[in-house]
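pasting for the record
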Amino acid sequence: VQLQASGGGLVQPGGSLRLSCKASGRTFTNWLMGWFRQAPGKECEFIGSITWNLGSTAYADSMKGRATISRDRTKNTVYLDMNSLTPEDTAIYYCATRSTAATSYKYWGQGTLVTVSS
């Protein structure tokens, strides 16, 4: 399984971002994709997840209202949209995937850096 995250870069405070994660290497029926981030000096933080089949989403409380996760099954790609960005959103953003029956994420992408700065 390979996960390729993209879309990071420099974003102005108050701006928005869209990250993509393209998955390959298996059929993802009954799997879900999660988004995480790790800011400098901080632990990895869960942002939210989406199931491949139904597109059901779940978000960390701190992300509700600011993050939206969607997927395009025809492209095997999951998206993370975030708005109202602040410098505190500066982090490496990762996508990861696991079976819906699993309790931990098995495959991780390489991460994409988002820097929020003026």
